[in-house]
Amino acid sequence: MINNTAKYTLKIKNEAKRLGFLSCGISRAAFLEDEAPRLEKWLNQNMHGEMRYMENHFDKRLDPTKLVEGSKSVVSLLLNYFPSEVQNSESYKISKYAYGTDYHFVIKDKLKSLLHFIQEEIGEVNGRAFVDSAPVLDKAWAAKSGLGWIGKHSNLLTQQVGSFYFIAELIIDLELEYDTPVTDHCGTCTACIDACPTEAITEPYVVDGSKCISYFTIELKENIPSEFKGQFNDWMFGCDICQDVCPWNRFSKSHAEPLFNPHPELLAMTKKDWEEITEDTFKKVFKKSAVKRTKFSGLKRNIKFLKE
Fold this sequence. Notes:
Layout (H helix, E strand, L loop, with lengths): L3 H15 L4 E6 L6 H10 L13 H5 L10 E8 L12 E2 L8 H20 L4 E4 L7 H7 L4 E2 L5 E2 L7 E8 L18 H5 L5 E3 L2 E2 L5 H7 L15 E3 L3 H4 L19 H5 L2 H5 L3 H7 L9 H13 L1
Parallel strand pairs: 3-10
Antiparallel strand pairs: 1-2, 2-7, 4-7, 5-6, 8-9
Helix pairs in contact: 1-4
């Protein structure tokens, strides 16, 4: 006879699949001992640059029971965003994750549905949904729950589908069956380290966030330091270089989420179109996109930096 814990675990994983998640792994909600010294060192070396929010809630980042009282399980979920088509080669580039509707909205709705399902099917379960907007170490939890290993570029990797997916969590006060981590399959490969134009991957598994093109084009609000001129390879919002060169991403498959499909105008735009973009076009093309984070002025700043 299957016990309730196993039965509930299976129900949750099946529903996650039905909702379109790529995979679902579960780990015990407990203090992340291995991550604590790593995070502390990273912050002390100022690798977060102007992302001061990374310094906040240090304890909550490492201990889910401080985020959800009485929590027992961290349910980690992956949602594929690899596109079937990319921008034309004569364009300034946007990270693939930002092609369609802002993932925060898409995933939050799916997580709410999953939590609602758990409460309907299992009973009174309390929990919270997290999508990259609270102090949760997404990649650490996903790795702990067996969804992949953290690669040398510090992204989560799987042998089956590479790394082009979002990570999200439900932290709930329900005991479940827990998965175990998988082994690292980066081997001696240094493709991501060798390809990073700003040398942001300072050593295997360590990324200096303050040198990353994604940081400069999205997070940094001031002017981009002039010493990085000519190093951005036409990336104007985010950067996919370390993922594009990763051999495991040969196995990426196109997503099946209509909301992640790009605005029709996006893929056809040329450098000239971007240089002449108006605020109205920006609002139309990026109406519900994550690109809105950088604002029209930020995108113009980035394009100007690439042109000079």
